[in-house]
Automatic annotation (TrEMBL), chain A:
Catalytic residues, chain numbering: S156, D328, H361
Lineage of the species this protein comes from: Bacteria, Pseudomonadati, Pseudomonadota, Alphaproteobacteria, Acetobacterales
Quaternary context: Homodimer.
Name of the encoding gene: metXA
Source organism (scientific name): Komagataeibacter xylinus (Gluconacetobacter xylinus)
Family label: Belongs to the AB hydrolase superfamily. MetX family.
Protein name stated in the entry: Homoserine O-acetyltransferase
From TrEMBL, chain B:
Organism: Komagataeibacter xylinus
Name of the featured protein: Methionine biosynthesis protein MetW
A Pfam family per the record: MetW
Source taxon at top rank: Bacteria
Alphabetical list of InterPro entries matching this protein: Methionine_synth_MetW, SAM-dependent_MTases_sf
């Protein structure tokens, strides 16, 4: 496992809000730094802005190369000139979420202790919610001089943020596009997150969350967390198509001993997951992973309303487009349908599409022509209704 | 847009809220938004049509008349439209109740099983009639609740719905001339189109 410490000294485009943010937990977090990227041009009327919200392990580098991995932006097939989220027409904003590790305030950020010294927050970072993430994004949007967003778009945990945007700031969100998401985090998904967290806790190099003191990272635990989570992003059909039962023969690799030993051979799918795990630890902070998965677990639109998920949207004028994928078992269509019906109960303007795909939860990041058409068409329709030429 | 959809559009006042149940390719929604300034939304059971509609910027959700109307609040719409679908739903009476709960008016079109050609076929052949409108054999048809215009009027009377407007329509959707006599319409109309208001609804 590569134990190199991820580059903490990377510089990201960001803005710092000295007054900070009151969090749902009651803590006032200050200052708050929000790292972000923008694409396209803000119109003189400031009416063509779209916020893109990233998922659990995403970041603000939607459409330009990642500064650590050099890989293309995570949604570069969706966001760009002439693409469904068209940077020739729209001004795209994407922030690293609160609690993240790509420049926005999070567990790896430094805090000043009473004795004046500075150290990373680590596991002392206050518990945050999806709504706290959205509040931080709202600070940035206001800072950019934008009062109403044409749309907020996001998949998975990004979709949770979309829903919080529409629930918390309904007058600011003309259109909302929650993708492959749910109005609450299910018991099954909390269970998966818990296994991920236990993998990190079990790594001796985690050092109770103070791993920076030893110059180490809990690479093994974080990699296992990523491997397990990655399985939930795919589907049986996708795994079978990509790997089947193929075996990779690599002499001298794959654990104990050579040919004839128990782990002398490695299935392709094992090799793939190991690769996913080892590349992930180079770019992601373990304490951020703990903080953000916990925020997802707490997400429940109906929690403050006796379980009524429609209540936060009463009287909404936002246009919604809910998209799910047929093979997504992490955020299945049934949960999107619950959301659609909750919005029906308040007579909201809702489109709801299930895209036929065998690619599982990750389908929203992959090539799905019907999905692209849906995003493009919904945003064009929203722009037309909003009176943007 | 089909001709009978033009007749439906003609029943809908501009700038009203409309729910089109079974919106198909979204032609009526598009027309109502562009020409009448309506807040027009759709529910459609065929996912391909849903995707196509949303890709055209139309607000359409996947769902169906039997299961999705119950979730809307009372009076959410001015008009709820059900085109050529009543005969295919599981519970037509409940669907009509829901339509007139969530909408002030219901616009319903359905193929008329009282048409003379169907009567004649059943009389002469002794077998289930097959026509261009009723084109699938009995074991394969989605049309599980066929009715005649007279049957439909009886249901409206039993449920206390006011018939604001009705017309017989031929298969192409052209308005048929049987506007004075329900009995003639029931014999010669291939399709029927009704504008209903609820029991306590306003007459206008």
């Amino acid at each position: 496992m590569d134990n190199a410490i991820p580059a903490t000294s990377l510089s990201h485009q960001s803005v710092t809000f000295a007054e900070g943010l009151p969090l749902d937990c009651g803590f006032h977090l200050a200052p708050v730094e929000v790292a972000y990227r923008t694409y396209g041009t803000l119109s003189p009327a400031r009416d063509n802005a779209i916020v893109v919200c990233h998922a659990l392990t995403g970041d603000q580098y939607v459409a330009d190369p990642h500064p650590l991995t050099g890989k293309p932006g995570w949604w570069s097939r969706m966001v760009g000139p002439g693409l469904p989220i068209d940077t020739d027409r729209f001004f795209i904003i994407c922030c690293n979420v609160l609690g993240g590790c790509m420049g926005t305030t999070g567990p790896r950020s430094l805090r000043t202790l009473p004795d004046g010294t500075q150290e990373p927050w680590g596991t002392d970072f206050p518990p945050i919610t999806i709504r706290d993430m959205v509040r931080a994004q709202k600070l940035l949007v206001e800072h950019l001089g934008i009062t109403r967003l044409l749309a907020v778009v996001g998949g998975s945990m990004g979709g949770m943020q979309v829903l919080e945007w529409a629930a918390t700031y309904p007058e600011c969100v003309f259109a909302a596009l929650p993708i492959a998401t749910s109005p609450f985090h299910s018991a099954q998904n909390i269970a998966f997150n818990e296994v991920s967290r236990q993998a990190i806790f079990a790594d001796p190099q985690w050092h109770g969350g103070r791993y920076w003191e030893c110059g180490e990272i809990p690479a093994r635990g974080l990699a296992v967390a990523r491997m397990m989570a990655h399985i939930t992003y795919l589907s049986e059909a996708a795994l079978t198509r990509k790997f089947g039962r193929r075996v990779r023969h690599e002499p001298g690799k794959g654990g104990a001993g050579g040919p004839g030993s128990l782990f002398g051979e490695m299935f392709e799918v094992e090799s793939y997951l190991r690769h996913q795990g080892s590349t992930f630890v180079r770019r992601f902070d373990a304490n951020s992973y703990l903080t953000i998965t916990r925020a997802m677990d707490y997400f429940d639109l109906g929690a403050e309303h006796d379980g009524d998920m429609s209540h936060p949207f009463a009287g909404t004028r936002t246009r919604f487009c809910i998209v799910s994928f047929s093979s997504d078992w992490l955020f299945p269509t049934s949960q999107s349908r619950l959301l659609a019906r909750a919005l029906n109960r308040v007579a909201a303007n809702v489109s709801f599409v299930e895209i036929e795909s065998d690619k599982g939860h990750d389908a929203f990041l992959l090539d799905e022509p019907d999905f692209d058409r849906t995003i493009r068409g919904f945003l064009c329709g929203a722009a037309e209704h909003a009176g943007i030429a | 847009m089909r001709l009978d959809q033009r007749l439906i559009a003609g029943m809908i006042r501009p700038r009203t809220r409309v729910l089109d149940v079974g919106s198909g390719d979204g032609a009526l929604l598009d027309y109502l938004f562009r020409n009448s300034g309506c807040d027009a939304r759709g529910i459609e059971i065929d996912m391909k049509e849903v995707t196509r509609s949303v890709a055209h910027g139309l607000p359409v959700m996947h769902g169906d008349a039997d299961h999705d109307l119950a979730h809307y609040p009372d009076n959410a719409f001015d008009y709820v439209v059900l085109q050529r679908t009543l005969q295919a739903v599981e519970r037509p009476r409940e669907v009509l109740r829901q339509m007139l709960r969530i909408g002030r008016y219901a616009i319903v079109s359905f193929p008329n099983f009282g048409h003379w050609r169907l009567r004649l076929q059943l009389l002469t052949s002794g077998r289930m009639p097959m026509t261009s409108v009723w084109s699938r054999p009995w074991y394969d048809t989605p049309n599980i609740h066929p009715c005649t215009i007279l049957d439909f009027l009886t249901l409206c009377r039993d449920e206390g719905y006011g018939v604001q407007q009705w017309m017989a329509v031929d298969e192409d959707g052209e308005r048929a001339p049987w506007r004075r006599s329900i009995r003639l319409a029931n014999l010669f109309g291939e399709q029927a189109l009704f504008l209903l208001r609820r029991k306590d609804g306003p007459r206008s």
